[in-house]
Amino acid sequence: MNSPIDYQVEDGIAVLTINRPEARNALDWLAQQQFAEGIQLAAADPTLRVLIITAAGDRAFASGGDIKELVNYPTRKDAFRLRRLMGGALTQLTQLPLPVIAAVNGDSVGGGCEIMSACDLRLSAESARFKFAQVQVGLTTGWGGAARMVHLLGAARAMELLLTGRFFVAAEAQAIGFVQRLVATSDVKEGALEWAWELKSLPREALAAFKRLTWESAGQSLDETYHLEEQLFVDLWSKGDHLEAMAAFIEKRRPRFDGH
Q1: The pTM is what?
Q2: Per residue of the chain (260 residues), what is the pLDDT tens digit?
Q3: Less Cβ crowding at N or C end of the chain, within 10 Å?
């Protein structure tokens, strides 16, 4: 039996793959646990530069929780377990000090869209469709997706998508800013790896600082965000990557960043 989550690292780039194509990559309890463990592995790896989250097959990226299994878990205790396991994993995803790319190989429904919302960058197959289906099964988002969608798209766009639970296609997702890059279905993994290598070539600490600044601004006042920006800017000013970039500019050569 194949593991429902595959986690591989090569050249500082990790790829976490949801591997349940026979269930449209819905996450049962085991898949949720292994997904959370994969994020913990990424958090504990100081050599990691980029994390890609994708899925097996070409039909679905993720379909949220596996209803065929979850129908047997109807209690409030079960709801808390579901919320804390995946909600905690996605919160940790936003806090990783490295870029996270969603490589969306197919349709993303319900919790799958919540996983996408917790990634920093989203590359999608042109044929993919998206749907916040929670309202149609009598629920809200449970993994932090509503708050992140308001942060990403603004209240008006988020409200419409969450209240209607309608499908929207990849072209619309790009137009509203939910997806940044579109590629052919066959090019999703290659496109994500190319993007990861682009990011890997940039200063590690500056990427981590920009990620922190962007995510934390959602819960801060402007003054608080300005203060955090000042702190991060000043901290980076005397670091090796910034000094190397200035030296390279003066010497008219490409900078050689080492992450220190």
Answers
A1: 0.95
A2: 689 999 999 999 999 999 999 999 999 999 999 999 999 999 999 999 999 999 999 999 999 999 999 999 999 999 999 999 999 999 999 999 999 999 999 999 999 999 999 999 999 999 999 999 999 999 999 999 999 999 999 999 999 999 999 999 999 999 999 999 999 999 999 999 999 999 999 999 999 999 999 999 988 999 999 999 999 999 999 999 999 999 999 999 999 997 55
A3: N
* Residue keyed to tokens 């390279």: 248
- C-alpha dist (Å) from residue 257 to 51, 65, 99: 19, 41, 17
Query: Do residues 162 and 187 touch, judged by C-beta distance below 8 A?
Result: no
Distance between CA 197 and CA 31 in Å, rounded?
A: 28
User: Quick one: CA dihedral 147, 108, 102, 124, positive or negative?
Assistant: negative
DSSP codes joined into one string, 87-118:
HHHHHHHHHSSS-EEEEE-SEEETHHHHHHHT
